[in-house]
Amino acid sequence: MTLARRPVKRRRALADLVDDAVLRALATPSNLRLGREIVARGEVEFVDFGRFRVVARVGGGQWRTFELKSMPAGLRWKCTCTGRRERLCKHGVATGLAVRRRTRRKVAAKT
Ligand SMILES: [Zn+2]
User: Fold this and answer.
1) How far, in Å, from the CA of 6 to the mean position of ligand 1?
2) Which helix (H) or strand (E) holds 16?
3) Residues 97-111 pLDDT 10s
4) What is the torsional sign of CA 29, 79, 17, 100?
5) Distance 29 CA to ligand 1 centre (A)
6) Is the dihedral angle over the CA atoms 40, 45, 51, 52 positive or is it negative?
7) Which of 9, 36, 37, 39 is the most exposed place for a label (fewest CB within 10 A)?
């Protein structure tokens, strides 16, 4: 049974992973700024929104599809843009920020 073989390390909810320090470590300053601008313009539309995986359509010029996942080893992502894979693109920054916003709204009592 696969259940018995589950890894000990548990996945963390995406909203807990994408804090400012993580975004700053993964993205360039210019992509951080562009990502914030995309969120400010409301150009993030979630296609799928789960605790460990989200898929979003993200604007900022051309619309791209961004997938963000929480894995036992940490964040994994995929974007349809041509940005470098090992750095988070502006679509990824925008998606991360939008995940936090949406989650914060749901759990308003938490600080
Ligand atoms: Zn991208």
Assistant:
1) 32
2) helix 14-17
3) 999 999 886 655 444
4) positive
5) 15
6) negative
7) 9
